[in-house]
Amino acid sequence: MTKAISVAGLHKAFGRTRALDGLDLTVATGEVHGFLGPNGAGKSTTIRVLLGLLRADSGAAELLGGDPWADAVTLHRRIAYVPGDVTLWRNLSGGEVIDLYGRLRGGLHRERRAELIERFELDPTKKGRTYSKGNRQKVALVAAFASDAELLILDEPTSGLDPLMEEVFRDCVLEARDAGRTVLLSSHILSEVEALCDRVSIIRKGRNVESGTLAELRHLTRTSISAELVGPLNGLAQLPGVHDVQSQGSQVRLQADTDKLDAVLRSLATSGVRSLTATPPTLEELFLRHYTTDEANAR
Amino acid sequence: MNRQLAGTGALLRLALRRDRVMMPVWVLVTSLLVTSMPRSLSTVYGTAAERAQAAATMNANSSMRALYGPVFSDSLGGLTAWRAGVVGAVLAAVMSLVIVVRHTRDEEETGRQEMLSAAMVGRRAPLTAALLAAVVADAAVGLVIAGRLAGQGAPGALALGLAVAGTGLVFATVAALAAQLTESARAAKGIAAAALGAAFVLRAAGDSGSADGESALVWVSPLGWVEHVRAFGGERWWVLALFAAAVTVQAVLAYALTGRRDVGMSFLAARPGPAEGRLGGVGALAWRLQRGSVFGWSAGFLVAGLVFGGMAEGAADLVGDNEKTRQIIERMGGQTALTDAFLAAMAGMLGLVAALYIVASVLRLSGEESAQRAEPLLAHPVGRLAWAGGHLAVAFGGSALILAVGGLGLGLGHGQGVADTAGVIGACLAQLPAVWTIGAVAVLLYGVAPRLAAVAWAVAGAALALGWVGPALNVPQSVMNLSPFAHLPKLPGAAEVAWAPLLVLTALAAAAAAAGLAALRRRDLAG
């Protein structure tokens, strides 16, 4: 696996605030990588380090085989970036900005530009401040997707897009992946992450807390089961992968590791099952667990 | 009406809280500059006889009248009003227009107003709060002036304080109007500042042409009214009604406009632009973003040059035989040939004002960075030096352009032929090393400590204050030498151009700018 982005032990402090506290992140070439974390976790700081706008205090960062700080200018020819909050010059039209960005990167595809403007339903003649937030976002998205950058760095790019445009955005990301490009997608929209991302990294307080494919991450979580049984429990609590068994009369509640479900259901069946509900882990639960662990620990 | 003003109190408190540093500093600098005059003047003109002679000489000299207006009384108070009245009024006007635009159009442009207006905030509350903030600041300036000058005569002190505060309010309402007309805070400030510049040029032209200030040109300028109040010189209280009338008319207009438009919108609406762009790079972008201001400054310098150039001949007719006056003019202009000295003094004034242009232009870098427009640009294959270089080329090259245009205006206004005009343009361009030094200080501040970049305004302001007021106050040469402008040869008229200081200043400017750029390359960009 070749790596488009590889970051290890990255530290960055702003005064007393530790924005990055030993962050690790690996993005393979050609994958769509979801970059998740609560507000203030350090996602944008990481991206700004990768873009050579901030200099890390310590740690190693490699981007497309180069140093994001020292080789910033040459690397940027191969990168397209869409910030979460796009600000435009008030007296330049959207079309002018798209073409300026294109020329700075050494040209953009005219047909692809025209096609994208049509798909995103963008009016390129409007000027900076007259665009809504979603439309400013579209200007940056058209410029990014019309380039032939190898790596797309997208920082919450769909905040402000309507559901139809969000759909167009998803198509564009998938097309980019099919064309062999790498995408780092920071997002809060979990359905978007689920639909697009091959792998995700979850960070919290400037550290990576989880990385892997969605299936792998799901695997790490537990299914909650509640059942009404006919007979007594048959050694269920001793089974590997079973947690938090609470039994009251014929009612039993428990948590089971998702990959041990088979054994758990067998054991329940031997006791005779009157009713059973099993709740699989939702993606939300998965993330919420990571996002809130800290508060839970603090309590 | 009540509902239209709902929330004004809260917005005013917000404005005063946000301006808690800027406003007191500006109030103190403005009022102390005025109220320190009696002491400084008494060291230059110790006796009543000296003051009487100085007053007579000043009034007889059209170039001095152009700079400061006529003297109406040779008491210490009268000379204070003469020397510092207009200066204080200009400072109060700039403070007021900045405050008003900052809390009206700036809030709308950044979108912050939207959130405020969604709360219990009436349609007219933001404008009212901004104007009240200006009233607070101007009242403070007026009170300090009236209080600290009361020893020179309470009625005069009160009249001067009211005139200075009144000018501030006139330009507060000019800014309120400008904020309704444009969608950008920068343009609104530009319109209000252009109005202030026009008021100064009108007053200067009128005063150079008439010894008693009764020219119609002076009467149409709010800065002229400051003179006409005649503080300490038989106060004409009714002139204050002019301030009140102008403030009322402009405020009513601004309120009428603000009630009729949408939040964030203006009456000069943005037109659609081209669907495709031809901007080829960051240099072209910098020029595109700043060209409007370069053209505006050039037009202003051309007009100012034409007006001042037209006065130059008058300066030669009235050679004062007062040795002190001659010394003052020599310190400003350097030559005994008074026409040359006058032109040199005006070239110097243009140079001082060009320092404001270069600071504004250099600080566009800071504005682009903090508005996060630099970030996506620098995520492209664009080096920080190339990005900054585009703006600096406009800043440093633009200052050369506006000074050349100002010199052209001076030469044409003076009307003494091509050779003379070339000499005057040269004299204006000789200001460049000092202007660039100020610009380079701004680059250094921006590169090393971007949060403190606005301190560059204080540097330019200090140079302006030393150059404008310093020569008449016997400010020690060692203090004058702190300003780069003090080291320039006095042109036109010097027998031989002293190249050494020009080269040294240019080298210093280059070094400071290079250091600033080196720091910019190494530091984090603001997010």
TrEMBL record, chain A:
Per the record, the major location class is membrane
Q: Which GO terms describe its molecular function?
A: ATP binding
Q: Does the keyword Metal-binding apply?
A: no
Q: What Gene3D superfamilies has UniProt attached to this entry?
A: P-loop containing nucleotide triphosphate hydrolases
Keywords attached to this Swiss-Prot or TrEMBL record, sorted alphabetically, are:
Antibiotic resistance, ATP-binding, Nucleotide-binding, Transport
Task: State where the protein is found.
Answer: Cell membrane
InterPro entries the record matches: AAA+_ATPase, ABC_transporter-like_ATP-bd, ABC_transporter-like_CS, ABC_transporter_ATP-binding, DrrA1/2-like_C, P-loop_NTPase
Domain of life of the organism encoding this protein: Bacteria
Name of the protein in its database record:
ATP-binding cassette domain-containing protein
Q: Tell me the ranges covered by the ABC transporter domain, including all copies.
A: 5-230
Provide the topology term for how it sits in the membrane: Peripheral membrane protein
Organism of provenance? Streptomyces bambusae
The record's family statement is: Belongs to the ABC transporter superfamily.
UniProtKB/TrEMBL annotation, chain B:
Q: Does the keyword rRNA processing apply?
A: no
> What keywords tag this UniProt record?
Membrane, Transmembrane, Transmembrane helix
Superkingdom, according to UniProt?
Answer: Bacteria
* Signal peptide range in chain numbering: none
Q: Which residues cross the membrane?
A: 81-104, 125-146, 158-178, 190-206, 237-257, 294-312, 341-365, 385-410, 422-445, 452-473, 498-520
According to UniProt, the name of this protein is ABC transporter permease
**Which species is this record about?**
Streptomyces bambusae
